[in-house]
Amino acid sequence: MKWVRRVTRTRWSSGRWAVLAVVASCLAAMGITPALAGNLTREKLAEMFPAPFVIGEKYRALPVWPIFQQGPKGPELLAQAFETVDIEPVSGYGGKPLNLLVVVDRDGKFLDVRLLDHNEPIFMSAQGTATLDTFAGQYKALSLSHSIQILSPRAQRAQTDTTATLHGVTAGTVSALAIDKSIMEGAVLGRFRLWAWIPRRAECGTPCQSCRHRCEYQAIEPSGKIDYEECFQCLDCVEILQDDKRCLPLIRERKRRMIALRPAPATP
Prior knowledge:
Blueprint: E1 5-7, H1 14-29, H2 42-48, E2 53-55, E3 65-71, E4 74-83, H3 84-87, E5 99-105, E6 110-117, H4 126-137, E7 147-150, E8 158-159, E9 163-166, H5 173-190, H6 210-214, H7 236-241, H8 248-261
Parallel strand pairs: 7-9
Antiparallel strand pairs: 1-7, 2-3, 3-4, 4-5, 5-6, 8-9
């Protein structure tokens, strides 16, 4: 029986990415971090992506690994890697989430997709696992902007600049759809960190220099602008931006509130 799965994608505005980023950063600042089920380490990723690639430290507010590549001015952020079980755990036919490694670049293009672990009953053999991994590998070179159709297991993979058709998995419809959702929705949730999303205030640079002086990577210019070629997206500046003891505009606002709450002097 021939079956078709049509996937519709919705692009988020930069404003929504920024809001989500600030929320994640605030949670991290309060010590609230996501419960992680993935087990990849920086060393293991380095084996998968050897030189000239460099694996950075995992972000504090989201379980995502930055991948750098040497550029004319030094290391440049190339892509980000994550385990889907940490970002968008989707249960398959076996009732437990499948776990995939997804690497997505600055344009939302998938550079690599690999099956790491699963509990799908009829695919537990080496051959079955290879079948699911082959299906997941079809997402390489696709992007978040592609409209994707999953066809029958005998169909041929094909893609254009905007559309793609993938072959399905025999007796594995639920597993295939779980993989699709894990990859696509996980990439959407993880990608908000990629580039120029870090929120700034009008006072950043003039007169406030708090973030610039505290940036260990010297990625903030005197004007307050973020130099994303130098930025390791450690989120320290985002935390400062929400701190009324370190962020100058918030310090001023806090002091104004304190003055307003002072009792009026007694009338003689």
